[in-house]
């Protein structure tokens, strides 16, 4: 999508363990739109990997067909229940499109299914939570995923991540969740490739403090190009 800068990073908790269930993707849409999603399947191993593949493929098809984020999540939930999946998953989906007012802004519609709360770094350096909540998938027959809508101006970033990031902690028990907003505020930059640098930097920062863990980390960042 013209005007957007994307970046992603993946951190493996323990390379000797079976494959985990974190996933993400970006799906081009009509008229310059772009949909992004990130998710996390409970557990590890072959069963989790199979469910990860199903979820990613299903979400991609639904978004390619033009489903809004909240509808795509609800449809994925029905697919999981029909498959009688024994694991649940969390996910967040964001649909981005040009505001079309000449400002370079991007209009975002975001829905969540029990996923960690996305963070939005504004152009003035402040970091705020995106107030979006919803039920995890693969558990209940009826789920509700009320979307949040907002504008991202040039120089602003949306950070999506899995709970392996926030639940990582130092030897003295400090969770990275407590450090995350300040870290994003201090390390984000609006230059070309800034989204990729921020995503990789987050994974590296957690790697420097985390105890031995078994949860992988996925980070997906979308930035609107422009002055900070």
Could you describe the 3D structure shown?
There is one protein chain. This protein has 228 residues and is of the alpha+beta class. Helix content is 28%, strand content 29%. A five-stranded antiparallel sheet has the order 1-10-9-6-7. Strands 2-3-4-5-8 form a five-stranded antiparallel sheet. The two termini are 19 Å apart. Helix 1 crosses helix 2 and helix 4 packs antiparallel against helix 5. It is globular and about 45 Å long. It has helices at residues 46-64, 69-82, 163-166, 176-187, 194-207, and strands at 4-11, 22-28, 34-41, 89-98, 106-113, 119-121, 127-129, 148-152, 157-161, 217-224.
Q: Unreliable stretches, pLDDT < 50, 5 or more residues?
A: none
End-to-end C-alpha gap: 19 Å
Per the principal axes of the C-alpha atoms, what is the gross shape? globular
Look at the structure and give the mean pLDDT: 89
């Amino acid at each position: 999508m013209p005007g957007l800068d994307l970046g992603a990073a993946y951190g493996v908790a323990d390379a000797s363990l079976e494959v985990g269930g974190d996933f993400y993707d970006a799906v081009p849409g009509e008229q310059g739109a772009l949909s992004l999603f990130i998710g996390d399947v409970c557990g590890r191993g072959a069963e989790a990997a199979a469910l990860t593949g199903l979820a990613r493929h299903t979400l991609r098809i639904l978004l390619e067909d033009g489903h809004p984020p909240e509808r795509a999540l609800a449809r994925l939930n029905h697919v999981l229940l029909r498959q009688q999946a024994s694991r649940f998953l969390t996910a967040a989906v964001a649909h981005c499109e040009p505001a079309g007012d000449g400002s370079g802004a991007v209009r975002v519609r975001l829905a969540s299914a029990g996923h960690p709360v996305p963070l939005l770094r504004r152009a003035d350096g402040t970091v705020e939570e995106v107030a979006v909540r919803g039920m995890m998938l693969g558990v209940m027959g009826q789920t509700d995923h009320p979307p949040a809508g907002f504008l991202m101006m040039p120089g602003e970033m949306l950070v999506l991540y899995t709970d392996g990031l926030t639940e990582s902690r130092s030897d003295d028990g400090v969770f990275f969740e407590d450090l995350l907003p300040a870290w994003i505020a201090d390390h984000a930059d609006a230059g070309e490739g800034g989204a990729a640098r921020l995503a990789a930097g987050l994974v590296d920062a957690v790697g420097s403090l985390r105890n031995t863990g078994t949860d992988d980390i996925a980070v997906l960042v979308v930035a609107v190009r422009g002055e900070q």
